[in-house]
Amino acid sequence: MMMNSQNYSFLLSPKMIDLLKSSNPVDILEGTTSAGKTTIAIPKFMFEVANSNMKYHVLGGLDTGTVEKNLINSEMGILAVFKGFAEYNGNGTSKIKIPHIVYQTSNGEKIIYVVGYDNKKRWKKVLGSQSGCIYLDEINTADIEFVREIWHRARYRLATLNPDDNNMPIYKEFINRSRPNPKWINDCPEEIRQQLIEREPIGEKWVHWFFNMNDNLSLTDEDKQRKIDAIPFGTKMYKNKIQGLRGKATGLVFDLQKENIITREEAMSYKYIAFSIGCDTSYSKKTHDKLTFELIGITDNKKCVLLEEETFNNKDREQHFAPSDVLPMLTRFANKCCELWNIKRPLDIFIDSADSGTLSEAEKFKRTTHVIHNFYPAWKKTVNIIRIQLQRSWMKTLDFLIVDECKDYLTELDTYSYTEDGELEDGNDHSIQGGQYGWLPYKSKIGNWELLRKIVNDKEG
């Protein structure tokens, strides 16, 4: 099956050619803006459909209107590239009620169902049988239930995606189980390579292709520079669009800058006047909510430094922990921190005050073991939105620093977001909350407190 070269042509980069020639059961295309992912995904999918022995296939996107605009009717869409071979029935036909493409190939007539992730009633109709090939555009926006249902029903699976929150289920269950094409592995940023090996690979060969603007040969150097210059360097959007790195681009609660991140050696150069540990708890076996231990240090020049952390999750454990298990774990963490940071006195440990079960266990543990460290309920009179305002201000003035080894905490800062309704999301904040419990008793010793105290006092009443 060939494209109609008289009506359509575009330049193919060596990586695009390798993708077209490949014979993997799964191809996942991720990368920067204007990298040509969709441009090459369309012919790859259509060639796979043409070579398939099965008649029915699926093309999915955010909604049918988006699929029509970006994949079917666009200048480089299916109807342009495969003119004379593909016919789109947007309203369905008397025989097939849902939108679909009739695709004439040398291997017989193929039917490609067109579905939107937003229409559960419609996409459920295509799940009744096996599919030959599926193409899920911007899979990071898909209903995860739809992906789980359709993925195992197809012989060939193609997905494109833009950088998003690496903690989303789509990454853990699908994307991060692929592996970079060895020939092009150096094009894939190290940060993403490390994220790809967080999950065990699948037995069959799932291949990850990272595309950047250099793979789009239709872009001139001037075009590339204009796109780069259009987005301020150092912003989350620059990280997503230009560098192709994951993490939410909009709606983030915190504006993490590279200056907020320091090495262990840099942290050890400060003189500390106080240390404490904050602990946020979660015992859920169904979610990825975490139990977090965060060591906070307050310096003599009014900086708050996140020094150490440990996080645990019951969902991923064979042996689940309970409140009675947490106190020995916390004590071991505190002892380790004292040794690493030369802390000569018992540590105050502040546990989520809403967790009466763990606090009761703490009282019993202290009474029966006579452990030297002290356990207290976290101080929550400072409401969450004010804690965030304080921390945002301190991060801006570089009075809040994080040791670069505290990966879970840094991930949350790059993830924690507001909802579309402007509310703080319920999740991605367990390390952040644990850190807050650690610094709340010392907030008056941090940064520009004198400028902020009236706001805080007004809110606290």
**How many strands?**
16
CATH topology call of the largest domain = Rossmann fold
Major beta-sheet overview: 9 strands, mixed
Beta content comes to: 15-25%
The top level CATH class name of the largest domain: Alpha Beta
**Poorly predicted ranges (pLDDT <50, ≥5 residues)?**
1-7
Number of domains: 2
CATH superfamily of the largest domain: P-loop containing nucleotide triphosphate hydrolases
* Morphology: elongated
Provide the gyration radius in Å. Answer: 26 Å
CATH architecture of the largest domain: 3-Layer(aba) Sandwich
The overall pLDDT, averaged over residues, is 89
The assigned structural class equals alpha/beta
Helical run tally: 17
Enumerate the strands of the largest sheet in spatial order, edge to edge or round the barrel.
Answer: 3-4-5-2-6-7-1-9-8
Give the % helix: 25-40%
Distance between the termini: 73 Å
Describe, in plain words, how this protein is organized in 3D:
By secondary structure, the protein is an alpha/beta fold. The chain has 2 domains: 14-229, P-loop containing nucleotide triphosphate hydrolases (Rossmann fold); 258-460, Nucleotidyltransferase, domain 5 (2-Layer Sandwich). It is 34% helix and 20% strand. The chain contains 17 helices and 16 strands. It has helices at 14-21, 37-51, 64-72, 78-81, 120-123, 144-151, 169-173, 190-196, 221-229, 236-242, 264-268, 323-340, 356-369, 384-396, 407-413, 430-439, 449-460; strands at 26-31, 56-61, 86-89, 100-105, 108-116, 131-136, 154-161, 179-180, 206-211, 261-262, 272-280, 291-299, 304-312, 348-351, 374-377, 400-403. The strands form 2 sheets. Strands 3-4-5-2-6-7-1-9-8 form a 9-stranded mixed sheet. Helix 12 (323-340) packs across helix 13 (356-369). The longest helix has 18 residues, at 323-340. The radius of gyration is 26 Å and the shape is elongated. The chain starts with 13 loop residues before the first helix and ends with a helix. Mean pLDDT is 89; it is low at 1-7.
